[in-house]
Write a structure and sequence with these properties.
The protein is mainly α. The chain has 5 helices and no strands. Helix content is about 65%, strand content about 0%.
Amino acid sequence: MTLIHIAAYYDSFEMFLYLLSLGLSLRQPSGASYYPLHYACAGRAKECASYILEQDPEQAQLEILIHLIFYLISFFIFL
């Protein structure tokens, strides 16, 4: 987990923007392969989550697709 993930989780919006200005990415994966959006949602960080989705709306579409794929895989495995 990096500082941008921590800032997203705790909804530290000013720090989040500062870290982005330093070149950190909205799609920076953590060691567990989670993005800042995942941490913002886990921490119920509305300001950071809203900002991420405004700046990179494709992340919401990717999340839905990924969850659908995992759901279908798990469905067929347990048949």
